[in-house]
Design goal:
heterodimer; A: mainly alpha; B: mainly alpha; 0% strand; elongated
């Protein structure tokens, strides 16, 4: 459940939408359990549902994701940090903000592929199945995302 | 493997723990590419892990509760519709069956009693009074026009069976007369 919410959150950059999409994902999964094929990993199947719902949502929203984190978001993430050390919490917030800033500049499909590869550590074959894209297209998207990331890192002065 | 190919390939392994043997071999002998890889590792660490974005347990419970509530309501709605149909069926099935039976009997009676041909003319009763007019005044010769009208009426207003009853009431002579003069069988 946490993994799905993390995916929908990074994709939408909005907690309310992320929660709604995660909820819809689990309801859809429950309703379509019969169609789940045993040979597919359950997580991949969930990611596919979540990805489709999120991409549809983003298409409908048809605007760039909001990069600011709402008050609700802050509470959620601070509570999640598991650390009461203010410095560490600050560090985590900075990381989250950087990720969101970087991902906000990626096109929806590229952001999804980057997320599934980098954060979910899925193989390119799995990502191709989830997104319905050709293997070569998936790799191209990922490569382009990393090139943009390197430029972003240079701009941020990450060493 | 040349540097260009390595630096192109290595992007696909960004964020992954290991590198394929071919890339590792090149990395071991090329300081330029090693610098690129080390830079990627630093950037990768800056992005954190999936857990950095995980919601806390309280929020997981809240979300799970929302999903469960929706699913329970959905299930109740589905079961509710089935139950309602079952209740209606149990309550009204006997009444409906009885009504259908009564209606069926009524239709049966109506159909059985209905004449085969519709007519606005009142039927001709098979009594002596109606037969009287069939004969001429001397009561020996049949009135041709009266018999013709009678046959016509019966064949247009009544069933063949009713016409048959009429013929049974006639004597053999009368029937012979009708057969000779009116081609009664064709007419019936």
């Amino acid at each position: 459940m946490k993994e799905v919410v993390a995916l929908t959150y990074r994709m939408t950059q909005d907690w309310d939408s992320a929660y709604d999409l995660a909820q819809e994902t689990f309801i859809s999964a429950w309703e379509n359990l019969r169609t789940f094929r045993d040979e597919a990993r359950f997580k991949s199947w969930l990611y596919r549902i979540a990805s489709n719902k999120t991409l549809n949502y983003l298409k409908q929203r048809s605007r760039r994701p909001v990069t600011s984190i709402s008050a609700f978001d802050k509470n959620a993430l601070v509570a999640n940090s598991g650390s009461h050390n203010p410095e560490w919490q600050f560090h985590e917030k900075e990381m989250q903000k950087n990720v969101m800033d970087f991902m906000a500049d990626l096109p929806d499909q590229q952001r999804l592929i980057f997320d599934l590869r980098f954060y979910k550590e899925l193989s390119f074959n799995e990502i191709a199945k989830i997104t319905g894209k050709a293997l070569g297209t998936v790799k191209t998207h990922y490569r382009e995302a990393i090139i943009k990331l390197r430029a972003f890192a240079q701009w941020k002065g990450w060493k | 493997m040349d540097c260009s190919r390595f630096q192109n390939e290595v992007l696909l392994w960004f964020g992954q723990e290991g590198l394929p043997e071919e890339l590792r071999d090149h990395l071991a002998q090329c300081p330029t590419c090693r610098a690129v890889w080390e830079e990627l590792v630093v950037v990768s660490k800056r992005l954190g892990e999936d857990g950095l974005f995980h919601i806390n347990d309280i929020q997981v419970e809240r979300l799970a509760s929302q999903v469960n509530t929706f699913l329970e309501k959905h299930e109740q709605d589905t079961v509710g519709v089935v139950t309602r149909i079952q209740k209606i069926w149990h309550a009204y099935a006997p009444v409906t069956a009885a009504a259908a039976l009564v209606l069926g009997i009524a239709i049966g009676i109506y159909v059985a009693g209905k004449p085969a041909f519709e007519s606005t003319v009142t039927g001709i009763p098979l009594d002596e009074a109606s037969v009287v007019g069939l004969y001429e005044k001397n009561d020996e010769e049949l009135n041709e026009g009266a018999v013709g009208a009678l046959i016509y009426d019966f064949t247009t207003q009544h069933s063949y069976e009713a016409s048959g009853w009429l013929l049974e009431d006639l004597t053999e002579e009368e029937l012979e007369y009708l057969e000779n003069n009116f081609n009664v069988r064709d007419l019936l």
